[in-house]
Design goal:
Two copies of one chain form a homodimer.
Chain A lengths: L5 H20 L4 H12 L11 H21 L2 H6 L2 H24 L4 H12 L6 H7 L6 H25 L9 H35 L5 H21 L4 H11 L7 H29 L5 H4 L1 H23 L6 H10 L5 H12 L5 H31 L12 E4 L3 H10 L5 E5 L2 H9 L3 E4 L5 H6 L7 E4 L4 H13 L5 E4 L19 E2 L7 H9 L5 E5 L4 E2 H7 L7 E6 L5 E3 L5 E2 L4 E5 L1
Parallel strand pairs in A: 1-2, 1-4, 2-3, 4-5, 5-6
Antiparallel strand pairs in A: 7-12, 8-11, 9-10, 9-12
Helix pairs in contact in A: 1-2, 1-12, 2-12, 3-11, 3-12, 5-6, 5-8, 5-14, 6-8, 6-16, 8-15, 9-10, 9-11, 10-11, 10-12, 14-15, 14-17, 15-17, 16-17, 18-22
């Protein structure tokens, strides 16, 4: 096993891990740290690490699975939902920098094919650490986040399709009409075949697999690996690149086709194997191929490419975004958010280098472009969002909207009616009378067993943002929340926990990242009674300084005669009062007495 | 990415998958099918597939992770518990075939080092499809199964330690005292260092990791990969082989050191990545190196090695097993069960071939030895166990013993008292009075919240074989069963499900492979009342022909006035009546009326 050079692999992995971790700590995507540490420790600077055949093999396999994973993460539904605005942003953010990159290379006497490659690389979008930065800047529920996500998805897909279009022509030297048709025909055939197999073949396979009950997770995983490699080979046969096949395979490996549970596990293995092990090898070794001499020999080109990438992306996005009617300021904000380049760009640049389409200099420039554009994102995006925020132009929107509430008892109904003022609310309960009563009072309510997926599907759980479980039975609440979490991925989960000593403890909330409703164990029955008998008082209290729900409850000595139920923000929007929440100064707490 | 030759990798994987699946269907371990299809499609016969640098790299990485996974699956506790009998079987089953293999090679003019290699390969034990065959032959709860498991564990560990002893000397040509000391010293240093790091370093790391809450599964996985590679490198530095390091690392990556939840996920990824993807590449390509010419050129040696392996293993085991006092027949049965050779043998043979220690001929012989010995297992073991069974010498025993019952209500207590006649039974309940009552009546009962791990630990859940949840609240039953399943891996789970339409449905049992108590949704309260008021009749009915619990219940029209609670086998042993069980002719059903 001397060929494997365990030491080399080990060092590359440690480097990747350290680089990725440091980058993540500072708020950047791990890939940035991996590239930088590759440049630092590789031949370009310290020369401690070097590439090898074995590393290349692992990196290439890693990239295939990473592309498959990226495909798996793209949901057709999301693409379909991607608003007009997202489409505009994606196109503008791609076309303008693409053109700038292309012409820069042409002016600097590069080949047309190299120019096209650089164009794609410059046009690509990567959301820097996706949700992380959006969370940090408290953007997750804004329209910006929504457009950014959609824009990046479309942009990735667009870039890969154009990449497919170009790569087919690489081997064809002088192009005549027949040759062109042949190349384009093969590519189109590939996409048609892949789509047909994905749409009609996969569901058949899925059905077949679901019938053979003895078959386990590993078996499914092996099949997925084979599918990904088969699609890659199909792409190669069509004269395209394997990563396109892997990406297409990933697009079609999705829920509804294969069983939800199996898919979840398989996705974990794909994710960890590629992102946690193989793909970082690619990004670190990509750093090995970077030449620092470009700072001397090609400084002008380097600056022009980076400038073109940044300006092209931001201005292009803002320009094309105008027809959305959301204003040029929001367009610029979107542009700064989409300015990062990441995995897909480095993969495309790496393939270009490997195929001899671009030189080491151009490759190095593209790597530095990725690094510098990604570095701009947190900085620029903080500026632009603060700017929007100060002008009051930060519009809220969320792909998942509204509340799904389990428990149509008087307390649940009371909360539902208040949340309904600004949000979509659906109640579910197994008690027909309560459902009837809720519908009477104008609240959408659905009758069904809360521990069955059917009921959740009827209530459109997959589109809901928050799940509240407030039956009097903590265990039912917990089991239902597990379903909401595991099968419907509802991001926010709030659970009413009973104070009964023998009941389930709050320790069961942690694995689901759920929060405790009312920030305190609470007995539902007495409050439900008080509400139905109208024997309560609703108080509103304005909070004077920033605080947490925990402190609010603590200050009142966990008084059982007080029940904090909602927080009202400065715009009058209400949200439920629960354990994992902060209360800002001037927000109000509604509590019952 | 032309170097990767996706097509070749794809074909090898498909071959591995088909071979493995067919072998599994027919009741053999997948590795058998992988080896055979490698021989069939590789250069030896059809010549369709061939090896490549890339395949070798992936295979070698796969073997490292497979060894780490094998190590992870070995539990120190299990090794410690491994009975005197298991140790005897392991030693006898290793030493005798080792000696036969060694002297056969020496007689045939092989080098001493080659003879040692063959000795280990012949001595190794692999349980053919481990639990599968034990399930098929209904052996899971017998002493044989217990000894087999322990024997295979010890044998694997023994083989790897001896392998380490030998491999250190490979590079040392002529051995003088100083050289010997140096080689042995390095090996001992490695084991000491690895053990120290494992025992003292890992828990520190585990603590550190558990403190940094933001850190996720993938992060842990990457760290585990790095640890495995680091141990491999350490082994290589000590002049040993990387697989030893990976195995040692796996031994120390275990519960108590790292968080249970994280470890579970990480183990899944290790398992699927190695067994579902990379390791099969190794076994298929191992088949590529087999030469069929040995059937002409070395037929005598081939026959001698296989005969020595089979006879040595069975006779050796039986001989050394005598001091256990369990009789020579059981010894021979154990021997036939341990006669398979699998992953570890092929890996060792592959390393020998790669290092030039053994020739292609010897390698081929070892592969055929693995195939033929593994083929004997189901056949021989069926014979020997039937033989024991007919003589009434099939002794029951299980590593996990007894029942853990949640719910000390009258019904639970009633069942506990009956099961207690032949089994260990522990009751848990959160009601102190019920606990007191149970203890009064001579049943071990523990007070605590059934949804907390502490309570389960107090009740020694990790050693229990069956968990029964029969509180009146289905949801508590389900949550507790989840805990029993996910954190304490209790193999059999039986849950009382309430007939209440709004309660949790039986669909929630499937993911845990749990069964429904009484084979029917049942309301606990009325029966508990009847028992405590002594207003019931206990009937016993002998079943006339083989049937299932489902049919038993069905035949009585799901009569709510009858409650089948226990099945009594011919030896008078009782077991709870639940959905997933068969009733044999002449077994009795105890039911309440």
């Amino acid at each position: 096993m001397a060929e494997l050079q365990i030491l080399n692999l080990l060092l590359v992995l440690i480097a990747a891990w350290v680089g990725g971790m440091v980058a993540k700590r500072v708020g950047f995507p791990p890939i940035l740290g991996e590239l930088l540490i590759g440049i630092l420790l590789g031949p370009a600077l310290l020369g401690i690490l070097e590439t090898s055949e074995a590393l290349n093999t692992l990196a290439e396999v890693g990239i295939l699975f990473l592309m498959a994973y990226i495909g798996m993460e793209i949901n057709f539904k999301d693409l379909g939902k991607a608003s007009w605005a997202g489409l505009l942003a994606a196109i503008g953010g791609f076309v303008v920098p693409f053109a700038l990159g292309y012409y820069t290379i042409i002016i600097f006497d590069g080949t047309q094919i190299a120019a096209l490659f650089v164009g794609i690389a410059v046009g690509v979008t990567s959301l820097a650490t996706k949700s992380r930065i959006l969370v940090d800047l408290k953007l997750l529920d804004t329209r910006i986040a929504y457009v950014l996500m959609a824009g990046a998805l479309i942009s990735d897909t667009l870039a890969l399709v154009i990449f497919a279009g170009i790569i087919g022509f690489v081997d064809v030297g002088s192009v005549d009409a027949a040759g062109l048709t042949w190349v384009a025909g093969k590519a189109i055939l590939f996409f048609a075949a892949a789509t047909l197999i994905g749409i009609y073949g996969f569901p058949l396979l899925g059905k077949l697999l679901s019938k053979t009950k003895t078959i386990n997770r590993t078996f499914h995983f092996t099949i997925m690996v084979i599918i990904v490699l088969a699609f890659s080979e199909l792409a190669e046969i069509a004269g395209l690149h394997g990563i396109l096949g892997a990406f297409m395979a990933g697009l079609f490996i999705r829920e509804g086709v294969f069983s939800r549970n199996v898919l979840k596990d398989v996705t974990i293995v794909f994710h960890d194997m590629s992102i946690g092990f193989l793909a970082p090898i690619f990004f670190v070794t990509a750093g090995f191929h970077v030449s620092l001499e470009v700072f001397q020999t090609d400084l002008v080109l380097l600056i022009l490419i980076i400038a073109g990438a940044v300006i092209g992306k931001i201005v292009g996005t803002a320009l094309f975004y105008l027809p959305s009617g959301y204003g040029w300021r929001e367009g610029i904000t979107i542009g700064t958010g989409m300015n990062g380049r990441g995995a897909v760009e480095i993969i495309i640049a790496g393939i270009g280098l490997q195929m001899g389409i671009i030189t080491t200099e151009i490759f190095s420039i593209l790597v530095f472009m990725a690094i510098s554009t990604t570095l701009t994102v947190p900085l620029f995006l903080t500026w632009t969002t603060n700017w929007l925020r100060k002008r009051g132009e930060l519009v809220k929107q969320d792909t998942r909207k509204g509340y799904l509430i389990l428990g149509a008892n008087p307390l649940g109904l009371y909360i539902a009616k208040q949340l309904k003022e600004h949000h979509e609310v659906v109640l579910i309960d197994s008690n027909k009378e309560l459902i009837h009563e809720a519908n009477e009072q104008g609240v959408t309510a659905i009758h069904g067993n809360a521990l069955k997926e059917d009921t959740f599907e009827m209530a459109n759980a997959i589109d809901k943002n928050t799940f509240i479980a407030l039956t009097g039975n903590s265990e039912i609440n917990l089991l239902a929340t597990q379903l909401a979490n595991n099968s419907f991925y509802i991001p926010n989960k709030i659970v009413l926990m009973s104070p009964d000593e023998n009941a389930a403890g709050v320790n069961l909330l942690d694995p689901m990242d759920a929060s405790s409703l009312f920030a305190n164990k609470t007995d539902m029955a007495p409050w439900a009674y008080k509400i139905s008998a109208n024997e309560f008082k609703e108080n509103i209290e304005t909070v004077e300084s920033d605080s947490t729900t925990r402190e609010w409850v603590k200050e009142r000595g966990k008084n059982k005669d007080i029940l904090p139920i909602l927080i009202v923000d400065e715009n009058g929007h209400k949200r439920p009062f629960h354990f994992k929440d902060n209360i800002s100064a001037n927000e109000k707490v509604i509590y019952l007495e």
